[in-house]
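Let us walk through a complete example step by step. Step one is to write down the protein sequence. Step two is to encode the small molecule, zinc ion, as a SMILES string so that its atoms and bonds are unambiguous. Step three, shown after the inputs, is the structure prediction itself.
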Amino acid sequence: MAITGIKTKFHPDAVLAETLSQWIGCARVIYNAKCDEDKYLRTYARKCLPVSTWPKPDQTYSQFKTELTSFLSECPSQILRNAATIWFQAYQSFFKGIGGRPARKSRVKGNYIWLTQELFRINWVNAVCHLSIGTKANPVGTLRIKWNKSRIPAQSPKSVWIRKTNAGWSLAFSYDDGLLHQDVSTSEHLAYLKTLDSQALDELITPVDRGVAKPLHTHNAIYALDADSKRKFAWRDKLVKRYQRKAARQVKGSNQRKRTLQRVAKLREKDKEVRTNFWHQTTRALANNSKVIVLEDLKLKNMTKRAKPKICEITGNWLKNGARAKSGLNKALLGVGLYQFEQFLSYKMAAANKPLLKVSPHHTSQECAHCGHIHPSNRISQSDFKCQSCGHADNADHNAALVIRKRAINLIINSGTELAGTHKNVLKLRASVDKSANSCKTLKVKALGAASGLSKKKAA
Ligand SMILES: [Zn+2]
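Step three: the predicted structure of the complex.
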């Protein structure tokens, strides 16, 4: 069984939008009041009470309904209760060590409500979903949502989340897709892969090289946005900068400035949609068309750090450290959404019971796929690769993909032998033991997805 989710945009009319906004505000008041109350009680307990008698967090909220907060009485009690429940659940997660202690939420982060079953009903009228909001006694309005009925679960969801951002309204819920996923562990996968020879592995494995200029490069395909989308990205970027300059000149808190910021949010939202759509389509194609996928184990968080400051050892002055270029590269790296790709691919591969493996990313762009020679001067430009040792010439990303596959095959075949060590040791070993083996630094094979297609084959 796997839990999956659906998120969709909607456009409420003015009356419904105002009601929902008020509900969201009330829910946030309760959540923040619970945070404040907890902080007060903890301070009090620390000063006055013995340790074992400290009050435990609870879900009560009626104490916040006073003469000063008469607006809370106009909001359905379920909304307020749900806000208290969210706070309580967050606290339980904190006790389990999953997250931090619940903290006050701002308008940006806390602009949502949780609607449970009493507060909404779903009816299908001519293949259009009508979502009525409000209790039976007090209906508030109806949303018409375009959903593909075949993809929506037959059973109505138990609860939905409504969120309001500068870019608009969205509605989300999760459900069990009812599909049985086999839980085949990575070790079982690798055990099977190990029984194959390098020829068979060569055919099975799809290596994926990730980059900025061309987001994805496999051994036989390139996945990148088309020129038109790229042009539109650049155009939106230009508009965002213009609106940000405009917002900087406008009076803080004014309606005009708010409108400018909404425009920025909408442009950003569009960027996000295009990117997300691209990754969904790409990962779907990859997951459907390949049996084993191997990625580089990129540490994106380390890769997108700021440039370190440089100091001249003699004079003690600050030197140029290329911070501007590094920031530009970081922005480009983050703008591609390589981590999102990894997330999408991992769940799609897991659902298909196919393995997703990772190999060490060190010097994949400098190593020759033909002879294994590693040198920075092998990479003569962003797109071209020419080995300084054997003269092998190729597209740089294609060469990197082949290197990744080679590493994966070596790791799978040799994973029984412990070869982890420094790069130099590995190079020495390669020279002495086997010319084609162990071209990477560590024997790190991580797997995200679980296996199936392969195991079935094994049984046959
Ligand atoms: Zn070479």
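Step four is interpretation. Residues 186-223+290-459 form one domain.
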